Amino acid sequence: MEITNEVLKDLHYRMIRIRFFEEAAGKLFExxxxxxxxxxxxxxxxxAAGVCAALRPDDQIGSTHRGHGHLVGKGGDLPKMxxxxxxxxxxxxxxKGGSMHICDLDLNMLGANGIVGAxxxxxxxxxxANKYRGNDTVAVVFFGDGAVNIGAFHEAANMxxxxxxxxxxxxxxxEYGEYTPRSKTMAIDDVVDRAAGYGMPGVIVDGMDSVAxxxxxxxxxxxxxxxxxxxxxxxKTYRYYNHHGVQIxxxxxxxxxxxxxxxTRDCIxxxxxxxxxxxxxxxxxxxxxxxxxxxxxxxxxxFGRNSPFPDVDTLMDDVYTVAGANS
Amino acid sequence: MSATETELxxxxxxxxxxxxxxxxxxxxxxVFCAGEDVGASGGVFGSFGxxxxxYGELRAVDTxxxxxxxxxxxxxxxxxxxxxxxxxxFMDFIMVAMDQIANQAAKLKYMFGxxxxxxxxxxxxxxxxxxxAAQHSQSLESMLAHVPGLKVVMPSxxxxxxxxxxxxxxxxxxxxxAKTKTLFGTKGPCxxxxxxxxxxxxxxTRPGTDATIVTxxxxxxxxxKAASILSSEGVDVEVIDLRTxxxxxxxxxxxxxxxxxxxxxxxxxxxxxxMGAEIAAQIQEExxxxxxxxxxxVAAPFSPVPFSPVLEGAYVPDAKRIAEGVRAAVQRx
Amino acid sequence: MGTVxxxxxxxxGKDIRRxxxxxxxxxxxxxxxxxxxxxxxxxxxxxxxxxxxxxxxSLGRQALRGLxxxxxxxxxxxxGDEVHPASFHSRRMAEQLQELGVGALVxxxxxxxxxxxxxxxxxxxxxxxxxxxxNVYPQMIEATVAGHAAAIAASGSKPLELIAHRAKILDVTxxxxxxxxxxxxxxxxxxxxxxxxxxxDVDTLRQLIVTTAEPATIGLSSIAARVAxxxxxxxxxxxxxxxxxxxVRAPIAPGLYHDVAIASYxxxxxGQSVVIDGPGVLAFDGERDVVLAPGQQVKITLxxxxxxxxxxxxxxxxx
Lengths: 327, 333, 319
Description:
heterotrimer, A: alpha/beta, Rossmann fold, 5-stranded parallel sheet, 7 strands, globular, B: alpha/beta, 7-stranded mixed sheet, 5-stranded mixed sheet, 13 helices, 14 strands, 38% helix
């Protein structure tokens, strides 16, 4: 398959948007302008960018507690996202969801999810709806290495294979379930070894290389569209920041050397270096894109800051689609 | 029920459920059913009988025994615009899928700032009486009614079974529709047409003046029997069949208690933290000054459902115990 | 007598060809079983020392779990202080095993893995066992027998020349790239990224140089086998240019046949070189690895001084 310059620029743009958004969110969080829990996607951008670039707008994605990158990757509105993360009325969820429940159903992003592994059954339900309607839309579910040890994930993967649904399972294996290394929680090293057990093909790609992720996703999605059922892609990746928040506090569960080693393989530096070498973009063009995205993110931050907090009267709104339950 | 309704043809409780599914699937192409044994075999109790033959494998889906994924299938399909009916064979099995029900289905709309609706019906089967023991006999409705975002329905007769199921499926919220296993064979009048019994509206199945029994599910019938016993003793009991536990028709309860001044709540679920606790609390909040006696509760003891028929018989409330409960309320003051 | 070394590539058998072709996955559990059987075979074959290269998945350590043997007769050790997840691992391990006096290797992987091993120990005597995808260099062989054959080779009881052949090799040199090599084939493909590394899209192929083109194998070299077959034992290779001309149909990955148009081909003699100009991506033994900028040039030379590939049948023959 041909990787055009347009695809490369698109991947780069998606990754920059995610990275700059997340860096800004991290600063707001450290500055106490952002309440609650914050799970940053920095380091893993190649996965969301590579997957989303291979999708059509009507394809659905299911997400995780580390879901900002997925929504940005799918084309999320940065001001609405930032406002939601800050608990403001103009946020995607009117301040009702926050970081862990951010969603945009118009973009077919089925929502971040605060329960590890819980997004998988829901995305499989979306895949069922696609098959039911007889369209060739595909549902992709992102999940971490921690999720594959949860029953809901197994149930969903098996169900998708048993019913031959148009789904793609994308594992973001960042080697840690919160603060515990994967080696302590699984007897196998490659999550993808389980794919055969579900009866679906599984591949490993370099999750720090957006082009590799794009290529594998394109193939898996084509397979799903053609009615050949689900596939499993394991992306070996890494998060630069803490499980929650930015800096590691308290228990130091991984070495600086390890973090630095992964940073030498940074997905954005990598694609910029390659595009410069291949003459796809000049340094000036890269700088222009970076400045534009930074301006977009700055604008999103200001939008969030200026947005009002929700009216307390809205607290009971949207518990039900039609009011009528007891309060 | 009105006079014309009593002249309706008779249908079994289960037959009414099956008829509702057939008719609503004919009406709405977005409705499908999924769950263990739902497809080819028509469900272990037969409630999904004939659907796969008529509507095909995509609309009456046999799934793995994967309660979380079954509910997740319904949630995802509902978010994507379909109107799923997913089945968890026994109400006990709901516990296996509680994350998908309580943390996902119930909350998605709220967490998403109202950006979606979730027209999902989860059908299940509740209740003791079949010596099915502690993991296949529970009535867990109060746990579900406690979760904002869910609706909980428990029909007590064929008419309601059909009308409430149609309303549940047409509702844009996640609804737990719990049938009672011991009622499957009971017959009663039921219209042939597709009709709705609206959710959240209780049914006064017997008007009375001396005391109010608030009940639902299997105990609705037992309470009517108890009312007959009490009637022979000169006690005129009003029986309210709630039909829907969430949302609850508090208005009907309060209005009745204000008239009768005495109330006993009856359910098959265990007494502690059961629906009776909520109902009693609401009555004392809204009608304290009208009460002539403490609100009574007749319910199962705080134990798992036993297996042996003798033990199970002692566990499940019946007309006799209900009558005793009402006498205690009436004799006081 | 003798020391057997074992290298298992933990990454082999899991790439994108499981999606784009019918390649089977090779799980770590399968690899652990293979390593264990190779150890048993080596012990039975008389090795007094078995050295297993460590890897980040500890395949070797897991293979030894619960394995019973007479440790007075054979010492089995895990070696390798430097554990690296990249392909560099196989290369570094091969270097270390050579330094430790290993007489013969059992190696697990596909063509790509064996290329890495050859980069670390060019003339290693080895029994290459297939656990990869497009396997021309390693062959399908039971690991028990592979370990046994390696032990016989390591003992020196039979001259290497009688039980092994010297593999052909393609040496690559050029401005701006590190000296490199391939054991089976080097393809020049269109594009500017290595991406998911494997090759399955024949439309991007521009040139192909092979050491081996056997009709009964799969992968890019099977294309050459359709027009100019050359076995692993023959001296000589083939250089193809793709483009309008003769169309052949070949299995370029497991279960995946494609029509490929060949514009021209020429046979290569030992010592003969081919010069290739950028831009494009060089794929070594089936994996895109080196990106050539416009104007960048590499020289590829066919040689016959690669690893010693042990023939288990010859090694195990009695008399």
